[in-house]
Amino acid sequence: MDWNLLATRLFGAGHGIKADGDFLHGTVQFDGRPLTVVGTTNHAPIGVRLALAQARVVLDTIEQHPERPIVLLIDTQGQQLRRRDELLGINRAMAHLGASIDLARRRGHRVIGLVYDQALSGGFITSGLIADACYALPEAEIRVMRIPAMARVTKLPEEMLEALSKSNPVFAPGVSNYVAMGGVRSLWDGDLPAALRDALAHTPRDDRRAIDGAERGGRRLAATIAQRVLDAA
After folding, report:
1. b/e map of 101-113 (b: 16 or more CB within 10 Å)?
2. Position 95 in a domain
């Protein structure tokens, strides 16, 4: 979905979100209170510049607007694969973005992620997956790695991974599989303002992804193993 159409459906025609190239940012009014909106568009690759720009908005919100909710609009093809960004320390820039979002949560900001188009790899891990909860539109595309690339990395046959993907969401791309694994809390369909209103009011502040994955059958052992590690600590 086009980001401007999404913003209009959520916040009205005069929403106040700006696009500086692939970078989205702005303050919107929702149910009579301000929200900070930050994110990306055009399947943006997240390089040093974009990571630091998003982190700056989050940190400014923490400093200037205590406990104001933050909405992350996510459309990314993953991290920028350029020598320049690698030399500038893209890993540290993306870690800084993730740490900024985590700090906002710790300071009492409700942080809601919404995948409205595409979410891949590190660009998704350091944004939506660090929010209080991540939601998605039904038509969104989410994956960490395509099966051919997974085959090259794991040295397993593509046919084996294709077969596994039919019964195990961990091996399969697709928004429904991320719901099953708990990475996406739910899909927003129909009344988008009502979905956002519910998310702001009822999203738990504790991390329920492993628990949700176990209850939905997408990640059957993660919650149990995590609890065993905590019990042994």
Report:
1. beebbeeebbbbb
2. yes
Position 81 pLDDT exceeds 90: no
In a domain, 62, yes or no: yes
Where is average pLDDT lowest: 1-15, 94-108, 112-126?
A: 112-126
* Antiparallel, parallel or unpaired: β 133-136 and 141-143: unpaired
Q: Which helix (H) or strand (E) holds 63?
A: helix 48-64
Provide the whole-model pTM.
0.89
Question: What is the span of the domain harbouring residue 99?
Answer: 3-138+187-202
**Residue 231: what residue type?**
D
Give me the number of domains the chain comprises.
1
> Distances in Å between the alpha carbon of 153 and those of 58, 181, 210, 217?
34, 22, 25, 26
Kindly report the CA angle at 209 between 219 and 63, in degrees rounded to 5? Answer: 155
Q: What is the CATH number of the domain that holds 42?
A: 3.90.226.10
